[in-house]
Write a structure and sequence with these properties.
Blueprint lengths: L4 E6 L5 H10 L3 E4 L1 H9 L5 E2 H5 L14 H8 L5 H9 L7 E5 L3 H5 L6 H6 L4 H11 L5 E3 L5 H10 L6 H29 L12 E4 L11 E3 L6 E5 L5 H14 L6 E6 L2 E7 L4 H11 L7 E5 L5 H7 L4 E6 L4 H7 L6 E5 L3 H4 L4 E5 L2 E5 L23 H14 L7 E4 L4 E5 L5 H15 L7 E4 L6 H10 L3 E4 L6 H10 L3 E4 L8
Parallel strand pairs: 1-2, 1-4, 2-3, 4-5, 11-12, 12-13, 18-19, 19-20
Antiparallel strand pairs: 6-7, 8-13, 9-10, 9-11, 14-15, 16-17, 16-18
Helix pairs in contact: 4-8, 8-10, 13-14, 17-18, 18-19
């Protein structure tokens, strides 16, 4: 059926004028409300105010304007139902065939740091979602637009189909409406949930982003939900798997700790080498790769600068599963794309926003929700956090900062030996901290790296002196750890006996 009447009421006016002009050229009567009506009228587009159409004024400072039988009856009446036709005629309710609505900017409002509860509540749209849902429910006859990106598609169909749209388009647009209103309601519920002081609930509704190749193992199906593609773009290679996404997330968090040109290599979400350089990323690669020449096989490489061809040539010599960079020089990308199984991922500037999102993990019968841990804590004013007789040298302080940032991203129990610009050995995920120390020391020997003069970082306290002593015996001259053990004095005494410098950050960075 031809579209004869449209109702337009939007907060985001992007593309609205061109769309409205297109509708007017097709002979569609335009209804509108408040600011949208003024915007159209001020730009020379003939529009009828909804208050004039319903014969009822806006009330309560605009809170009630479209909640009227003449609006919802126009949207919900079935065009092929005789009783609906009789009701519409009796009550003088014409059809409304097209609705264009985008909602009050609730999400943007509550994203402001100083938002008040009253301000948030005033940005809860009532009439908008109601009209969207009415139109979407009756999509057999009504076209509903909730996204300005659909303006051109609808206009084009109307021009090609005597001002009508296809059923398949209306079905798709209705689906988008229910996705949008679901996300909108979730945002409201989540905000109000945080404001409550009584019992809380947790709600989550996310669109499917992509089906993943598989989960941890090929026999496990996996899907990715949300807006992953707002943060990362796959430029080349096979579809991502569940473990690829976990690795990308871990790599992004790690590289975000560094401002100098830095390269990190990860395997199973654990760093196995990190290096920084002043300019040449090949130098950063060499430092990272020398930490462990075996683990990087089939791993993930991430850099915080554009990938140059010189580096691409070097790292392409080993098998890598995923390479991540803010961008790739054209010749570097072309060189790496010769490997069909290699996934190239562009990390968009928005990726850092994701690091502050809550961490959600399944639990028996439900989920756990935890605040993010987006940055290494406790690194300020290290000179005043010394616990040993000997203070650290300037070089040791720099090595402490570097190693602490890496240790934060190593699975607990985590031990990292490092210098001011590189890792030297990493021990991860052991049941006792001393075992992580021993593994790191063994890995350094395997790599042919000396730990003499190194700094050791521990993501949590040394519960006993044995781990620290093992590190000192291996050559470490300084240590950085949170402190907080009942045996702190024993650990400090062991450091003093070996003339080690040690600082307590006061912050633990467990990672499970």
């Amino acid at each position: 059926m031809a579209i004869q009447r449209a109702l337009l009421s939007v907060s985001d006016k992007t593309g609205l004028l061109d769309f409205a002009r297109g509708l007017a050229e097709l002979g569609v009567e335009l209804l509108s409300t408040g600011g949208t009506a003024r915007h159209l009228s001020d730009n020379g587009i003939t529009v009828r105010d909804v208050s004039d159409y319903t014969g009822f004024p806006e009330l309560f400072d605009g809170r009630v304007k479209t909640l009227h039988p003449k609006v919802h009856g126009g949207l919900l009446q079935r065009r092929d139902n005789d009783q609906d036709k009789r009701d519409a005629k009796k009550h003088e309710i014409p059809t409304i065939d097209l609705v264009v609505i985008n909602l009050y900017p609730f999400e943007q409002t509550v994203a402001k740091k100083d938002v008040t509860l009253d301000e948030a509540i005033e940005n809860i749209d009532i009439g908008g979602p109601s009209m969207l849902r009415s139109a979407a429910k009756n999509h057999r006859w009504v076209t509903v637009i909730s996204d300005p990106d659909d303006y051109d598609r609808v206009l084009q169909e109307m021009r090609e189909n005597e001002t009508d749209t296809t059923l398949s388009t209306r079905e798709h647009l209705a689906w988008k409406v229910f996705q949008r209103t679901s996300a909108y309601d979730h945002a409201i519920a989540s905000f109000l949930n945080k404001e409550q002081v009584t019992q809380k609930t947790f709600n989550l509704s996310l669109p499917l982003s992509s089906e993943l190749r598989y989960g941890d193992n090929p026999h496990q199906a996996a899907s990715l939900y949300g807006n992953f593609n707002d943060y990362f773009v796959k430029l080349h290679g096979k579809d991502l798997s569940y473990t690829n996404v976990l690795d990308i997330d871990s790599a992004c968090g790690l590289i975000n700790e560094f401002r100098r040109p830095t390269l990190a290599i990860l395997k199973h979400t654990n760093p196995c080498g990190v290096g920084s350089a002043d300019e040449d990323l090949r130098e950063a690669w060499q430092k990272a790769f020398e930490t462990d020449r075996q683990a990087p096989f089939g791993g993930v490489i991430i850099i915080n600068r554009t990938m140059p061809l010189s580096l691409a040539r070097v790292i392409s010599e080993i098998f890598t599963d995923v390479i991540i960079a803010p961008d790739f020089d054209a010749d570097a990308r072309a060189h790496l794309q010769k490997k069909k199984n290699l996934r190239l991922i562009q990390m968009l500037p928005t990726a850092t926003e994701a690091l502050s999102e809550p961490i959600i993990r399944s639990a028996p019968g439900g989920v756990m929700v935890m605040d993010a841990d987006p940055r290494a804590l406790g690194l300020e004013d290290l000179e005043n956090k010394v616990k040993t007789q000997r203070p650290p040298t300037r070089d040791e302080l720099e090595a402490m900062r570097f190693s602490w940032r890496v240790a934060k991203h190593v699975k607990s129990n985590a031990i990292v030996f490092g210098a001011h610009d590189r890792t030297l050995a990493i021990g991860a995920g052991q049941m006792s901290r001393v075992d992580s120390c021993r593994i790191a020391i063994w890995k350094a020997k395997e790599a042919g790296l000396s730990l003499d003069g190194s700094v050791v970082a521990s993501d949590a306290m040394f519960p006993f002196a044995d781990g620290l002593i093992a590190c000192a015996d291996a050559g470490a001259t300084a240590a950085i750890q949170p402190g907080g053990s009942v045996r702190d004095e024993e650990v400090i005494a062991a450091a003093d006996e070996r003339k080690m410098a040690m600082v307590f950050t006061g912050h633990r960075h467990f990672l499970h």
